[in-house]
Write a structure and sequence with these properties.
Blueprint: H1 2-5, E1 9-16, E2 19-28, E3 34-42, H2 51-65, E4 70-75, H3 80-88, E5 92-97, E6 107-113, H4 136-148, H5 156-166, H6 180-189, E7 192-198, H7 212-230, E8 235-237, H8 243-251, E9 255-261, H9 263-266, E10 271-279, E11 283-287, H10 299-302, E12 305-308, H11 309-315, E13 325-331
Helix pairs in contact: 4-5, 5-6, 6-7
Length: 337
Amino acid sequence: QHLLTRAHAACLIAERGDELLGYVLVLFRRGTSLARLYSLAVAETARGLDIGQLLLEAAEAAALENEVWLMRLEVRPDNAPAIKLYEAAGYHRFGRYLDYYEDHAEALRYEKRLRPHVTPPEPKVSYYSQTTDFTCGPAALMMAMKALDPSLPMGPRLELQLWREATTIFMTSGPGGCGPYGLALAAHRRGFQVDLYVNNEAPFFVHTVRNEEKKRVVERVSQDFREQLAESDIQLHRRALTLDEMTGLIDQGAMPLVLISLFRMYRENVPHWVVVHAHDSRFVYAHDPLVDPDHLDMISDKANMPIPKSEFDRMARFGRNELRAALVIRQRENTAI
């Protein structure tokens, strides 16, 4: 019922008179050019009528109408007819999930470029999914640091350590997230060169806290972070990082973490951190650490996400004041002694 009434999805059916021959369900990811073929089924009485092929073609047409250029799906290794259908339609296998189905069977992962002239870059950044609701910043920072230092061990221990160093303590409910100042300091402590871009001098996320006492705590934490920042060699830029600047820095080998609003993806006005690792003429490619089962997310939906540049520019601002923040980390240059 959620998929049919609330999800950003398309459910297409094949009928013959009053007889249901099959259906296909496609999930779209708001703000991205990615879709997932969630389910395709053909009735026993319709086998041999090429209904599966017709439904698959209809699903791809619906995806193209939604400005999608990359379709992904999962299939059981023992589902030979489905694998034959997908491979004949141009889907290629790019990975697998272990222990995916209820009976612990693995899933084969397939994808197809619906616009063949668009080829996504191979991600050079290892993907990591946040393990709590409040550690998107640490998860994104770990991915960025791992890309620059392959010896870095990513895992919940470092994720929570980074959160303890960078948290604002409080937010609307539950533990606080991480603001740009705290994340910049955490990266700096680990030996990375950091440039920080913020377009507002006010404490980040203080407006998400309703309790006055908690607001004062957030303000004190923010002030402490800024004082530590002033004592470091972190470069603070009191303006937003432009899209052209960001793509240029990526080309130079830097790793940007960008604050976005989840509103354009989930219709939720929540701040969130992603790491942007590549770009081409139309898209930026980001790893989003949030895999939300309530939205039927899979890692394949959140790794190497193609986001139209114009859409990314709109989502990279948070709240009524359009707060913008990004930290750019890179390997520190060795200086001669």
